[in-house]
Amino acid sequence: MPADTVALARYLVGTLLVRELQGERLVGRIVETEAYPPGDPAGHAYFGPTPRLRSLYLARGHAYVYTMHGHNLLNVSSERQGVGAGVLIRAAEPLAGIATLERFRPGVPVRDLARGPGKLAKAFAIDRRLNGTDLCMPGALWLAAANDRRRALVISARIGVTRAPDHPLRFCEQGNAHASHQGGLR
DNA sequence: TTGGCGATTGGCT
DNA sequence: GCCAATCGCCAAT
Q1: Which residue lies nearest C4, CA-to-C1' measured?
Q2: Prediction pTM value
Q3: What is the model's pLDDT at position A150?
Q4: Straight-line distance from CA A49 to C1' C11, in Å?
Q5: Quick one: pLDDT at residue A56?
Q6: Is the C-beta of residue A53 closer than 7 Å to nucleic acid chain C?
Q7: Phi then psi for A120, rounded to 5 degrees?
Q8: Is the CB of A23 under 7 A from strand C?
Q9: Which of A49, A90, A164, A167 has a CA between 20 and 30 Å from the CA of residue A155?
Q10: pLDDT tens digits, residue range A54-83?
Q11: pLDDT, tens digit, for every residue of A139-183?
Q12: Which whole-number Å values give the CA distances from A91 to A6, A30, A51, A102, A122, in the listed order?
């Protein structure tokens, strides 16, 4: 796993997100990420550590789950322990357990099940109880190596941020319809 | 104890 | 495209 936040954000596109839930395995292929490197004015850690940010400062590969506008968002801590930085997982392509994903997001087309960070968390039943989880080990939530990461990345500005809005730190798999904000996919 | 503030979403125009 | 609902956090009362 890359030791640098931006490299990790690129690496995670194509990686498999695995959610083990009541004996069932839900799998999504990550297709969109955003990097929030150390010292980034848009990053949560910018104004220093607070108790809520604890898992953002864990060694890279731990889950940082927080609530925003009533939705949960999943991040992966991305630097060495003690440095606050992370990668936001914005969208995934459902691969397995689709019936269960649909149960968490009734009436939603498969293409939209995990298209957006809040939607992804809802579809995969990710909430703050998973905050701090080590994603490098198989468990309730973890990351599995991809068997196909050949596809090209499209780089664009991050979505919805108010500080440092122009930094090219958003990474999408080129042409993948499961990524959000198609406008950035030109 | 209260109020402003988001790395959002979904419905309506 | 616009906008309201949503809710935990944190600083200020």
Answers
A1: A69
A2: 0.95
A3: 72
A4: 15
A5: 96
A6: yes
A7: -60, -45
A8: no
A9: A49
A10: 999 999 999 999 999 999 999 999 999 999
A11: 999 999 987 767 899 999 999 999 999 999 999 999 999 999 764
A12: 17, 6, 27, 15, 12
A164 and A41 Cβ atoms separated by less than 8 Å: yes
Rounded, the Å distance between the CA of A150 and C1' of B8 is 30
Chain B nucleotides near the protein (CB, 7 A): 6-10
Tokens linked to A153: 């990345």
Distance A109 CA to B9 C1' (A): 15
The predicted structure's pLDDT at residue A48: 77
CA of A44: nearest nucleotide by C1' is B7
What pLDDT was estimated at residue A47?
85
Q: Is the pLDDT of residue A185 over 60?
A: no
Phi first, then psi, for residue A102 (nearest 5°) are -65, -30
A47, closest nucleotide (Cα–C1'): C10
